[in-house]
Amino acid sequence: MAGPLPIGDPAPRDGALPADLPIDRDTPFSAYLHVPFCRVRCGYCDFNTYTSGELRGARQDEYANTLIREIALAGRVLGDAGALRPMDTVFFGGGTPTLLPPGDLARMLDAAVSAFGITDGAEVTVEANPDTVTPEVARTLADAGVTRLSVGMQSAVPHVLAALDRTHRPENVRTAVDAAREAGLAVSVDLIYGAPGESLADWEASLDAATALESDHVSAYALIIEDGTKLARQIRRGEVPAPDDDVQADMYELADERLAAAGFDWYEVSNWARGDDQRSRHNLAYWRGSDWWGFGPGAHSHVAGLRWWNVKHPAAYAQRLAASESPAAGTERPDREAHLLERVLLETRLADGMAIVDLPEATRPRVAGLIADGLVDAGAAIRGRVRLTLKGRLLADAVVRELTD
């Protein structure tokens, strides 16, 4: 299970939005649907997920009905606030959404479309464990309106998967991708690098396997050790080594090289796509500060600068909705300074970069020093934007600190 929820102001029990919220109906709207179930807890995972033994009163077979109640509540709340808009993107994340019957996912999607509407050509993504995707599952999802499958590959090397507590069979990644393709779905694969015992050669093998799949999109994330996870405890006890920053940097550079050679362009520090039309539009909505409603236990939402988050446990989530109450646990409205910090943090990670005039006025002169250090692209800066170089991507956090402190 994930760490504690943020500390914020109490959320209204009816979920109503503040009357003075500056709603902009031209801002794109997205929906995130959280499915918090996993067969096994991966040692590195800090997401709000639960195995069957941890549900304590919540029922997996009733989950779709419970989440649909929150969709109905959201439709009322947004309608009352004049903030109801059709969805541009929908994302089923987890956990493992495909642990639910595909018909349950279809019902949740249908409920969201009925409540909000959906734009023509909207992107609808479902995350999946490779072992849970069959041709029948893929066809059912496609028939329901899903357009994209995000497959949790993580690695192609058995001992690396074991170090991450991943239980899927490596060969089933190809099976899942083929099933998605046959159903007409776009495909993304997720990779993780820097696991205990993973060599550069292991990572190279995983990259080769991923590019051989000829997917439309690849995400590659450096392993981060989160407090409270099994892996953090193993490292603290000296049972496995902590990730090596230099090795992870070498792995990132190799990923960028191999993915570029295979026809992928980077568009965010950890994401590559085969052309602009294959970028994850849902993730771009987060990075660009659009509005979204997060459904499910522990899910976070954002509308017009207001943020809120739901109670974490599926049982508490179900109890709130059964009582016709909002599942929101807390809320906050970040001030202008916090909002600007977040903009710099997110927008500078994008290949499109961030407009220099949108930086804090006091830090704009520092762009010249970042160019001199090889962290920011000089040509992009002349055109008025901060765009990271490869070296800058490796040191993105340092760039953000320089531009915000």
TrEMBL record:
UniProt cross-references to NCBIfam families, sorted A to Z: hemN_rel
Pfam family, one: Radical_SAM
Spans through the membrane: none
Chief location of this protein within or outside the cell: cytoplasm
Residue ranges constituting the Radical SAM core domain according to the UniProt record: 23-265
InterPro entries associated with the record: Coproporphyrinogen-III_oxidase, Elp3/MiaA/NifB-like_rSAM, HemW-like, rSAM, rSAM_horseshoe, rSAM_sf
The family this protein is said to belong to: Belongs to the anaerobic coproporphyrinogen-III oxidase family. HemW subfamily.
Protein name: Heme chaperone HemW
Lineage, highest ranks first: Bacteria, Bacillati, Actinomycetota, Actinomycetes, Micrococcales
